[in-house]
Amino acid sequence: MSVLDGLDEVCEQALAAHGCPSVSVAVAQGQELVFARAYGLADVAGGRAATPETAYGLASITKAFTAVAVCLAADRGLLDLDAPVPGSHPWATVPTPRQLMQHRGGFPAYYDFHYGDEPSPIDPAAYLRQVRTPGSDFEYSNLGYGQLGELLEQVSGQSLRTHLRTHVAEPLGLTSFELGDVHPGPAPVARRYTPDGRTYPDCHSSHLAAGSGWATAGDIALFARRSAGLLRPATAAAVLDGPAITDRLDYGLGRMVQREGGSVISSHGGGMGGVSTMMIDLPDREVSFAVLTNSTDKSARNAVVRHLMDAVAPEFDSGHLQPVTERARDFTLAPGGWAGRIETPDGEIPLRLDVLTDRQVRVALADLPPVTVPAAASHRWDVRLAADLQLPTVDARLNSPSFGLELRTDGDGLTGFAIAYKDGDREGLLGPYLVHPCRLLPVG
């Protein structure tokens, strides 16, 4: 296949150029695996080479498995994709499974990665609040996929791991697929690494259905090609049908979808501490790829994916690699002061913004010294900024030292979110991403 021409050199150069320990690549044609090869080390300290049999963490490619399982349960009559999620819920409007799969359930972005054997002190229920009306807008949300995992367990009476293996992986012949914070073995597993080569410990989270899958590259390529065959034709078509999130990209049911000249590319990437992955399917060409790496840095993954796409479908751009869901626009908020409160699990925290000239904003958080930072705007937000401030809550102090704001004008005030997060893992390990509602009013 022409797609494989020069692949060895590209992979070896990508690993060397970006300090990535290993990459595993697979290609499926029709319904069969036609290529699987791994490069580099799955375990650097142990000198263990990566092989096609090495299982990698999938991160958010897991969402595609969860979505297929939800669609299959709908085909079996266990749930209705367009009925509110059953059960007792505190939300004003209960989302449907379809809305949750499309990241339109109304929940915010969120993750709660933590390390070690002790349970996380973060209660995800404190962040499981709707911040917009279901169906209204795209917001990539692990919380929504967590709800889908709970729904599958509820309607099937099985654990999510058992359900995904029994109803998705095994019927598709995917022998390597697993679900869990820690791979149960006995398959060889790629250890995870920071961009500067430190080893990640076992990573835990409350949202298994969103990001805790494991598999070989070969099984991911086969899943991309074969999974539609599990579903009724209309359901399989719905997987690739979703509202637009940009002018080039849609998000269907667990898949990013891009169309160009009548052709379709279906994809899903994944990224977390020590994991960068990509699954791509071109249904019109009946070919799929999987590229799995064991580094947080996406650069090596992206170089290999671009090589494969340039050989098979050069008409598609690389929007699926780094989807940008915020379209930039000019910052136009007039100078002035705004003050209010951030709602957190620890109670309300005072916040003041002073919009200055030249896109500068002074931020005063709680009793911390104010800082002045540049601001931006997007099609959804009138103010977007990041500041070197620590939100003074128990959850944020664990491992979320950075502070961000996304605010829009709302009547006479500013409404939106304050975010505690960790900006990369060049130092330490990735921490939780925690979103808190806030509202500010004009002050003199």
UniProtKB/TrEMBL annotation:
Top-level taxon: Bacteria
A Pfam family that the UniProt record links to this protein: Beta-lactamase
Domain Beta-lactamase-related: 8-307
Residues annotated as signal peptide: none
PANTHER family with a match to the protein in the record: BETA-LACTAMASE-RELATED DOMAIN-CONTAINING PROTEIN (PTHR46825:SF9), D-ALANYL-D-ALANINE-CARBOXYPEPTIDASE/ENDOPEPTIDASE AMPH (PTHR46825)
Descriptive protein name: Beta-lactamase-related domain-containing protein
